[in-house]
Amino acid sequence: MTARAVTEATFDQEVLSNDKAVLVDFWAEWCGPCRAVSPILDQIATEHSDKLDIVKLNVDENPGLAMKYQITAIPAMKVFKGGEVVRTVIGAKPKPILEQDLAEFIG
Fold first, then answer.
1. Region 63-80: what's the mean pLDDT?
2. What is the enclosing helix (H) or strand (E) of 107?
3. Closest CA to 96 of 38, 44, 32, 45
4. Which residue among 30, 41, 77, 89 has its CA within the 20 to 30 Å range from the CA of 52?
5. Mean pLDDT, the chain, whole residue set
């Protein structure tokens, strides 16, 4: 399983109404660090799909959501639980560090 794309049209259903914790990767095509972290997120999505959903939101294609969640730098990852942001991770990080940041959701 790899991270799937969400849009402004699917965000409520895929993220806010999800029973599981959901990590939203706010990214853009032109962002090098976003491309670097993407395969790491895909690995985490595969390894922990029973506990955490991981989705990607292109900030250029969905500016309303980027503004709503105050995305000022990318990559930015926000974990949603019960429709609320419960954790924010900014910047590309190696897999062990990301797993530490997400431990309470994947542990």
1. 97
2. none
3. 44
4. 30
5. 96
Cis ω on the peptide bond leading into residue 33 (within 30° of 0)? no
Reduced DSSP (H G I as helix, E B as strand, rest coil) percent helix, strand, coil of the chain, to 5: 35, 25, 35
- Catalytic residue, from 3, 22, 24, 31: name it: 31
31 assigned to active site: yes
Please report the sign of the dihedral spanned by the C-alpha atoms of residue 93, residue 97, residue 99, residue 101: negative
Element of type H or E holding 38: helix 32-47
Residue 65 falls in the annotated catalytic set: no
Give first-to-last CA distance, the chain, whole Å.
19
**Residue 55 banded pLDDT, cuts 50, 70, 90:** very high
Q: What is the pTM of this model?
A: 0.96
